[in-house]
Design goal:
five-stranded antiparallel sheet, globular, single chain, 5 strands
């Protein structure tokens, strides 16, 4: 049962930022297990019913949904052994994290976020996404202009500077989406104390329900 994160969760990530090494991690493994991994697993279990209601194909297994804290040192310039944040990502089985459309929650010492969308779009998906914006503009406007959506989420994703200029006459909010390399809607936690209560799971579940039309549209792309 999800009971919320604790101050130990935040303290662990904060300490890891200045002690990102194996001796520190092994000495504090018990804190990681109880204050980080366990509540993340419990949160996944708590969110599973709403996630499956939205899309029965999404993977809800905590061991596959919650990220590893160990960094893959074969890739990237950062050679510290541990990530200083973790996430839970609900995606369909067989889809890569980099190109999937799914729901997520992430947490570090200084921030927490949740939302859904594409972290990265392949070329075919991007092209279809733009065609859908032209074909069904009213559907997209209804989704992103929904008062609850606008009050809760920010549309994110890097944009092209010169490529993919929107068609003449396209509404500005759709033109902004048209230029995106990828797109996702994200809620940023403003008060970290919100993480320390069992009610967090219900809040995220409610927001995932708000995101369902957005997710369904992106899945059609």
């Amino acid at each position: 049962m999800f009971e919320g994160f604790t101050q130990d969760t935040i303290s662990f990530f904060a300490a890891l930022q200045v002690n990102n090494n194996k001796p520190f991690f092994e000495e504090n493994m018990h804190i990681f297990e109880q204050a980080v991994r366990k509540p993340l697993y419990d949160l996944v279990d708590a969110l599973a019913p709403v996630v499956l209601k939205i899309d029965p194909q999404l993977d809800i297994r905590p061991a596959r949904t919650v990220s590893r804290i160990h960094r893959d040192l074969r890739f990237g310039k950062n050679k510290t052994p541990y990530r200083e944040y973790m996430w839970a990502g609900f995606r369909r089985v067989g889809e890569s994290r980099e190109e999937t459309c799914g729901f997520y929650f992430d947490l570090s010492a200084t921030s927490a976020n949740w939302g859904c969308g594409y972290y990265h779009m392949n070329t075919d998906t991007m092209q279809h996404f733009r065609k859908m914006l032209v074909k069904e503009p009213k559907r997209v406007q209804k989704i992103i202009n929904n008062p609850k959506f606008k009050a809760t989420f920010q549309l994110m994703g890097d944009s092209y500077v010169r490529q993919y200029q929107p068609p003449e006459g396209m509404p500005p909010e759709l033109g902004d989406l048209y230029r995106r390399k990828a797109v996702y809607a994200e809620h940023h936690v403003m008060n970290m104390d919100e993480l320390f209560t069992p009610e967090l799971a219900g809040r995220i579940a409610e927001d995932f329900n708000t995101l369902e039309p957005f997710y369904t549209f992106l899945r059609a792309c």
